[in-house]
Specification:
Layout lengths: L2 E2 L6 H9 L1 H13 L18 E3 L7 E3 L3 E2 L4 E8 L4 E2 L4 E11 L4 E2 L4 E3 L6 E3 L4 E2 L4 E3 L2 E2 L4 E2 L4 E2 L4 E2 L4 E2 L4 E2 L4 E2 L3 E4 L4 E5 L10 H20 L1
Parallel strand pairs: 2-5, 3-5, 4-6, 5-7, 6-8, 7-9, 7-10, 8-11, 9-12, 10-13, 11-14, 12-15, 13-16, 14-17, 15-18, 16-19, 17-20
Antiparallel strand pairs: 1-3, 20-21
């Protein structure tokens, strides 16, 4: 498995050479205006130079070369992003306390927050979809789960395989969901139980986001 660990390249001179100083100034102004980090590393496969991917206390994020990192994403410290995962515009993944792992083919949609607490690392499994504006904090989310838009999952929670957390729900500290359950509400309560076969439609967003990432990667490459 090939991993990205900050390839050395003079990205600023490359950008000036190909696009001109005016282009860079405009991009900097735009990023300042929307309060996004403006300096980062642009490795291969179209990762944006306007993402912020930095070490913390000597620990560097480890990002698989086949992951997609959109513009405006912040990844800090003890973080691992696995193959074909995608982090979308405005998302923050802050591994400054405990470790964070995002599994294969998992999508973390726009403006999500992934963070931890002491003794509560964050692990998100494979084929998981985390909807826009969700907060996933110091918990475990197993494979094949769907976390709805704006959901909040708190420290020590455990979302087991194939489960669904409905949009806007709040999963309490230490709460266990599933396997193969749907919860909703604040606090979240079990609304439905199902089996592996009936959970298959909830995997569709993960499949969709694999296609979306391919398309946005091409957009990002063409715009540089």
């Amino acid at each position: 498995m090939k991993l990205l660990r900050y390839p050395e390249r003079d990205w600023m001179s490359d950008q000036v050479r190909h696009e001109g100083v005016g282009y860079l100034v405009a991009r900097l102004i735009l990023n300042i205006t929307i309060s996004r980090p403006i300096f980062g590393i642009r490795p291969i496969h179209g990762m944006s130079i306007f993402s912020m991917i930095v070490p913390y206390k000597g620990i560097q994020p480890v990002i698989h070369e086949e992951a997609f990192i959109a513009e405006g994403v912040v990844v800090i410290g003890n973080v691992e992003i696995k193959a074909n995962a995608s982090l979308w515009y405005g998302t923050v993944v802050r591994g400054d306390i405990e470790s964070i792992v995002v599994g294969e083919k998992t999508n973390i949609q726009d403006n999500c927050t992934l963070h931890t607490e002491y003794e509560f690392p964050l692990k998100i499994g494979n084929n998981v979809s985390v909807g826009h504006n969700a907060v996933v904090h110091g918990c475990i989310v197993e494979d094949d789960c769907l976390i709805g838009i704006g959901a909040i999952i708190l420290n020590g929670a455990h979302i087991k395989k194939g489960s669904v957390v409905a949009a806007g729900s709040v999963v309490r500290e230490g709460q266990v969901v599933g396997p193969y359950q749907m919860v909703a509400g604040a606090p979240a309560k079990v609304k439905r139980e199902f089996d592996a076969e009936r959970s298959k439609p909830f995997l569709q967003p993960a499949k969709n986001y694999l296609r979306h990432a391919a398309g946005h990667r091409e957009i990002d490459i063409r715009s540089k």
